[in-house]
TrEMBL record:
Tree of life domain: Bacteria
Residues covered by the AB hydrolase-1 domain: 91-284
Signal peptide, first to last residue: 1-26
Family affiliation: Belongs to the peptidase S33 family.
Gene3D superfamilies per UniProt: alpha/beta hydrolase (3.40.50.1820)
InterPro entries: AB_hydrolase_1, AB_hydrolase_fold, Pept_S33_TAP-like_C, Serine_prot/Carboxylest_S33
Residue span, Peptidase S33 tripeptidyl aminopeptidase-like C-terminal domain: 397-488
Protein name in the entry: Alpha/beta hydrolase
Region called Disordered, residue ranges: 490-521
Record keyword Nuclease present: no
One Pfam family, short name: Abhydrolase_4
UniProt keyword list: Hydrolase, Signal
Organism: Sphaerisporangium corydalis
Length: 521
């Protein structure tokens, strides 16, 4: 399967049409029974996609301020503990995104060690507005018209605001009343209802990437109900517009620097012996002039943004070798490596999933006008001279322009009091969730937080070598935390196999296989 170019910030994820959609009908929400908020046990049956796993649903209120009002069904999947006599309870997981499917992670992910699957029922859920849980959808034709986040004029800034307004109206009309209630605080309340319905007195949870925000805010809202929260590749939900964009630009550039350094020292890199930065700059310039053919579509060309997204996605693994081969093939106009071979086009649909609204209800990133936006882009280009900006950061900033305020879950420093200890893990060279984010989140949580540092690369530390995996497993199983200040050595990407070689959870554009694309974080 070709690893897909990560069409980031979700507003641009036309490829998300690959996600199997639940039929959308606003009336099914309006007329739904009130949420049971976990009072009724989940009725598990064999999953249609994989009968070896069990699937079920739980009804939760659309608006938790009206717990007896209209509800939405959330989809769940679980694989029961392989050693019932040693079972500890349920491990609820979230793969991030927003837009990642916890159900797909259980059905197709295969990520956890045998010790975890022996001791826990692994339970994944599709958050409200995602995948099988009444996905937010928009006109496919409208999403395909999204302007570039590299806004270059006042007129283009005004065009972007007008486009976002049209898109919000379209998505709300197609998605129904749930559209305005997909913030992470609502998901946190859903998660507590799932915990109760599973029969667990306290929550054991693994969240990756954007899923760490769910865990962090669960510890804020329900500190006495925490057994263990293992948070992998952490968000920092305290950052304003400038700090968010700057930290993202810096960590994206750091990942490019690591790729270039690897090519300089490793003869297996297809760009070894060449000036990687000059080569890359030349490709970006050619893409800007429309001179690089799209290997998947001989009639089309790749844009500068396409190249930035592909490189960024390759840093998630990291998949440096494949990226270098692809860049050389692009330059020469030859057949790309097998990882990028063409595949059938996704089926044409009227609507596509659009979970960016989740982030727009979690992040207030105001930009007054084009002059301020241009200043952000200039600063990002200074911090990231090769990558120009973080594709996800500018995608989110542009995609949420004009979002009506106030939003349900704006940024704030974490306020955690009375929680059981939490484990936070992060790679030093993570392209998406900067290491400084994890350090910031740990400082905000305070004494309850232990930060595990992975000295290597990529997005997600669980499975990258024995050190990180054993630390997470010991915490989840026996609540044993690593010593404060523990740093796990890097595992060279070429040396990773098996569990360690799975760089990311399956996301909406890749429901059944690991790959580069992550919907947002």
């Amino acid at each position: 399967m070709r690893r897909k170019i990560p069409l980031l910030a979700l507003a641009t994820v036309v490829s998300a049409a690959l996600l199997p959609l639940t039929p959308v009908n606003a009336a099914t929400l309006v007329n739904a029974a009130p949420g049971n908020t976990g009072r009724t046990p989940i009725a598990w049956t064999a999953c249609e996609d994989d009968p070896t796993a069990e699937c079920g649903t739980i009804a939760v209120p659309i608006d938790w301020a009206r717990p007896n009002g209209p509800a939405v069904d959330l989809a769940l999947a679980r694989r029961t503990a392989t050693d019932p006599a040693a079972r500890i309870g349920s491990l609820v997981i979230n793969p991030g995104g927003p837009g990642g499917s916890g159900v797909d992670s259980v059905l197709f992910g295969g990520r956890f060690s045998q010790e975890i699957t022996r001791r826990f029922d692994v339970v994944g859920f599709d958050p409200r507005g995602v995948a099988r849980s009444h996905p937010l959808v928009c006109s496919a034709a409208l999403i395909a018209q999204e302007p570039s986040p590299f806004i270059t004029s006042r007129a283009a800034f005004a065009e972007r605001l007008a486009y976002n307004a049209r898109r919000r109206d379209d998505c709300r009309a197609r998605s129904g009343p749930l559209y305005d209630h997909v913030d992470t605080l609502s998901v946190v309340r859903d998660l507590d209802a799932i915990r109760a319905a599973l029969g667990d007195g306290k929550l054991t949870f693994y969240g990756k990437s954007y899923g760490t925000l769910i865990g962090q805010e669960y510890a804020e809202l329900f500190p006495q109900r925490v057994r263990a929260l293992a948070l992998d590749s952490n968000m920092d939900h305290s950052l304003g517009t400038r700090a968010f964009l700057d930290t993202e630009a810096a960590t994206t550039q750091d990942s490019f620097d690591e790729f270039a350094a690897w090519c300089d020292r490793d003869a297996s890199c297809a760009l070894h012996g060449r000036d990687v930065r000059a080569f890359w700059a030349g490709l970006l310039a050619r893409a800007d002039r429309g001179e690089i053919s799209d290997p998947r579509d001989p009639e089309g060309t790749l844009t500068k943004l396409d190249l930035l997204r592909q490189a960024f996605g390759a840093f998630y693994g990291p998949d440096w070798s494949e990226l270098a081969q692809w860049l050389v093939a692009l330059d020469a106009g030859t057949e790309p490596p097998a990882a990028f071979s063409a595949e059938p086009a996704p089926p044409q649909t009227e609507v596509v999933p659009f979970p960016l609204q989740v982030a727009c209800e979690d992040y207030h990133l105001p930009v007054r006008d084009y002059q301020e936006y241009a200043a952000h882009l200039r600063r990002s280009a200074t911090l990231a001279p090769d990558m120009l900006a973080s594709p996800i950061a500018i995608g989110l900033a542009a995609g949420c322009l004009g979002q009506p305020a106030p939003i349900p879950n704006p940024q704030h420093p974490l306020r955690v009091s009375g929680s059981a200890p939490l484990l936070l893990g992060n790679a030093v060279h993570d392209p998406a969730t900067a290491y400084v984010w994890a350090a910031g989140a740990a400082a905000q949580i305070g004494r309850a937080a232990t930060l595990l540092t992975y000295e290597g690369w990529g997005h997600g530390v669980y499975g990258h070598g024995d050190c990180t995996t054993r630390a997470f497993d010991a915490y989840l199983v026996s609540l044993t935390l690593p010593a404060r200040g523990t740093r796990c050595p890097a595992v060279p990407p070429s040396a990773e196999t098996g569990l360690q070689r799975r760089p990311s959870w399956p996301g909406p554009s890749e429901p059944s296989a690991p790959g580069w694309a992550n919907p947002l974080f």
